[in-house]
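Worked Example 4.2. Consider the chain below.
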Amino acid sequence: MSSPVPIPVGGELASLEAWVDPTASPPYLLMLLGDDSGCWRIVDPGQGYRTLFSSRSYEDAKSWVLEDEYESVRGRMTNAADPAPV
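Applying the procedure from the previous section yields the following structure tokens:
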């Protein structure tokens, strides 16, 4: 499944984490993206995938979302054609 808009990464997307603010109603989602050049970005899918923060360090990017009390989403993404039990 492709995104409705291009996700801003410098190189090839290598990593994606979902982070959520569980205190918002409905919960608010941010994405932590890493590319193959070592750049990490926090993007907001609710604002057209606008980059909110970028760094050459995963730890800096992770600290940025933790400062605002976002929580890492644990779980699994599945292909709708091949659902797996959660």
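The chain is about 10% helix and 35% strand. Residues 38 and 56 are 6 Å apart (CA to CA). Compare this with Example 4.1 before moving on.
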